[in-house]
User: Fold this.
Amino acid sequence: MPLFHPPTPPISGGAAADRIAEALGTPNRTIHGEKGHVTAFVVRQFVDRGLLADLSANPDGTLHHPGQVDQVCRREDLADLVAADTPLGPEQAAARLRVRRADFDHMVRLGRIRPPQSIEVRFGTSRAGAVDVALYTTASVDAVPAEHPEVDWEQLRTVAKSRRSPLAALRPHRREPQFLPPARVPRRPEGRPGTRRRAVHTSPAGSHSGQARPVPSQWKHQPPPGVLRAPMVPAAWRKSWVSPATCAS
Assistant:
């Protein structure tokens, strides 16, 4: 009889980051406030790469299968993947590109680099002084010069500290509006110009005068859903409904 193995509970993104750090030989420190070598940000990037599956529907955290995390830890290119997905703040990204922070802010404004995630940084114990800090991956920062060869990077890297950024005069590219093709106009039915043929439907319950009453499909204006409106019928029909002969019958 086969033995029953209980299901393995999932682990959090922080626990997965600790396992990856141990596999690289640089375990994360457990001291409070000490930055680890591998963070949950890297784990999220692994999810975006398709290396890990997120078992949680919570946008503030991730859950992963331990076996899948162990498979990722055994990859030969694990160090390169972690280095490419290491988070960088705006100051670190500007220093890696060897440009000023003001120049990097203009790159973000122009849409030449986008942060995949942002974190909330608090100053003190109150949330009144909390600010959102954008995080960029190392690979995305390194790819900016190759993706934008129109920028004179040598000149940008030699601009003095107090000088205006050459990127300040540029404007972000706007996408051209996409116009939809004109809607097809339905053809008029055969007959006299400017007239329409309409099928006449009668209600099974006729009036007392023997004339058929119109059904809602013959109303001149269809009422909106949930609103009752009296049908517009010819005056001759209305007179026949209230005639003395009809009432006597």
About this structure: The CA atoms of residues 10 and 66 lie 6 Å apart. The two ends are 88 Å apart (CA to CA). Residues 13-23 form the longest helix (11 residues).
